[in-house]
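Summary for the steering committee. One of the milestones for this cycle was to obtain a three-dimensional model of the protein with 4'-deoxy-4'-aminopyridoxal-5'-phosphate bound, which we needed before selecting residues for the alanine scan. The sequence and ligand used are listed below.
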Amino acid sequence: RVAYVNGIYQPHGQAVVHIEDRGFQFADGVYEVWSVFDGKLADYQGHLSRLARSLTELRIDIPMSAEALGIVLRETIRRNRVRNGIVYIQITRGTAPRDHAFPKDVAPSVIITAKSIDLKKGEALAAKGAAGVTHPDMRWGRCDIKTVGLLPNALAKQAARDRGAYEAILFDEMGMVTEGSSTNAWIIDENGKLRTRDTQANILRGITRAAIMKLVEAEGIELEERAFSVEEAKRAREVFVTAASSFVMPIVSLDGTRIGDGKPGPVATRLREIYLEQARREAI
Ligand code: PMP
């Protein structure tokens, strides 16, 4: 495997950044993940735009043009011979002597990795449905920025793994679901209404979420962007989560409570199918 590190392609096993990189010391950086189909990037523009926004919000200089970025992303995919998988980019404020305040005249660090993923595994899980557990949302106030400060997310995901579950569904101090530890969360409520939390709340504006919203509209399914509680999720007909790496994943149990009939529901199944079809077709 090969990684792109600040303009150089290095063997993955030897690819390093400096110990005083601000990503390492302060989680002062952002990232983005695209899924790759047939060597091409899915939802390309959406993830690119969010990356630019994340950088702007943190006042990190945009290190290269969109054209140059497109070239290195694709070159990293090519050099790793990825047909299906993901490509990851991380941009930090750069390397400077440790001091909380921003350093002057520092170049951002850019790393890119790509890896192959066996799509059959995700398909098998989606066909069966995945388990979820609930977990308090312990993150900061700017979850709309896709920063590498993922410790609360990692702790929540591990709590899920410790209980044999796939995803941790996070909830706020009111008991309302915010999102998953690395996904956006949706339900078909007990009245049959599709719901997902609005992005005025402190959540990530998922690119897959946005793509699904457009598909939902085209399908003529009514959507309410309104928060739902953990209790509502447990009583829901369907629960599912969305992300670039997992597409649409049905959640068939929550804290051990069976959702619906305990099988992936028709809406989640349909949305997964049409999302994948579109993402493949529009990948560039
Ligand atoms: N929420 C969080 C906290 C995430 O980390 C992710 C995945 N990056 C998502 C939602 C889903 O976002 P996307 O559809 O853009 O991958």
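Key point for the committee: The longest helix spans residues 266-282.
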